[in-house]
Design goal:
Shape: elongated
CATH topology of the largest domain: Rossmann fold
CATH class of the largest domain: Alpha Beta
Strand order of the largest sheet: 5-2-1-6-7-9-10
Helix content: 25-40%
Number of helices: 8
Radius of gyration: 22 Å
Order of helices and strands: EHEEEHEHEHEEHEEHEHEEEEEEH
Distance between the termini: 56 Å
Largest sheet: 7 strands, mixed
Length: about 300
């Protein structure tokens, strides 16, 4: 590292933690860490700090957890008073207003988990898997008021195999983002404006995005299972329950969409082809391979799934 910079770090989920640790290990001065406020979690619904908050405390770094910053002038003033060289933002989860974006001398640099301008927005990793992209990556960009529209400083690319999952891609891009932000701060590369051609948007996911619609092609449902694991989770209703599908793969077979087909494995007919469900979970139960699941929850051939 050629220069020790005074930074703020703004992030919340697991994706952001490798970058925070890398900046700290590289010797940068982290004046403050900003994270989403603690929220109720677990069976006891106890207030629980987010992963970045916990990592910051472990590293002995000061933490602020404002519920909002967009119109809070006191927060704007407190941020400006930090006298920062730059702010590093990684999946923070709050919209940053112009007073925040313009306060650091080198601006706010965002670690975005896609090859911009493809998959701007909240769920770029899921979108890449869901839409069968051949590659994904990380873009380091200088933030502006538009949604992920700022100029680009660095990119890193990773190929996506046909069985790639959101969980695997998440971990690969988190590590890549940590390495790229160190380079961006060290090298201070020129900013390149994003082209509007090819821009796509990945909206925030909801539970409904995990619903398996058996009228869709098996290849599309396979991608949805891989994209929605671990959250929000792929599922289908059956009886009074929603059964979660943790792993699946396309398989030969024909039948009415949603029909369980005859054979040694749990295979369901789709709008095109069939989907073999290999790992499932009932509400409040542990995950099981299909054979063990069927011993306690029979789904005989001819059953129609919701």
């Amino acid at each position: 590292m050629t220069e020790r910079l005074r930074l703020a770090f703004m992030g919340s989920p697991d994706f952001s933690v490798p970058a925070l640790r890398a900046l700290h290990a590289a010797g940068h001065e982290i004046a403050c860490v900003y994270a989403q406020p603690p929220r109720p979690a677990g069976r006891g619904q106890q207030e629980t700090p987010c992963p970045v908050h916990r990592a910051a405390l472990e590293l002995g770094l000061p933490v602020r957890t404002p519920a909002r910053v967009k119109r809070d002038t006191a927060e704007h003033e407190a941020f400006a008073a930090l006298d920062l060289d730059a702010a590093v933002v990684a999946a923070y989860g709050l919209i940053l207003p112009l007073p925040i974006l313009e306060a650091p001398r080198r601006g706010c640099l965002n670690i975005h988990a896609s090859l911009l301008p493809r998959w701007r927005g909240a769920a770029p990793i899921h979108a890449a898997i869901l839409h069968g992209d051949a590659e994904s990556g990380v873009t380091i960009m200088r933030m502006e008021e538009g949604l992920d529209t700022g100029p680009m400083l660095l990119k890193g690319t990773v190929p996506l195999g046909p069985r790639a999952t959101t969980a695997e891609l998440h971990d690969a891009l988190a590590g890549m983002g940590a390495n790229l932000i160190l380079r961006a701060l060290d090298e201070n590369p020129p900013a390149i404006p994003q082209p509007e051609e090819g821009a796509t948007y990945a909206p925030k996911l909801t539970k409904a995005d995990g619903l398996l619609d058996w009228s869709q092609p098996a290849a599309s449902l396979d991608a949805r299972v891989r994209a929605m694991n671990p959250w929000p989770g792929a599922y289908f209703p059956h009886g009074r329950e929603s059964l979660r599908v943790l792993a699946a793969e396309p398989a030969p077979g024909t039948g009415a969409p949603g029909e369980v087909l005859a054979g040694p494995a749990l295979t369901v007919a789709c709008g095109e082809g069939a989907l073999r469900l290999t790992r499932l979970q009932r509400p409040g139960r542990g995950a099981m391979d299909a054979d063990a699941f069927l011993r306690g929850y029979p789904l005989p051939p001819g059953t129609r799934l919701g």
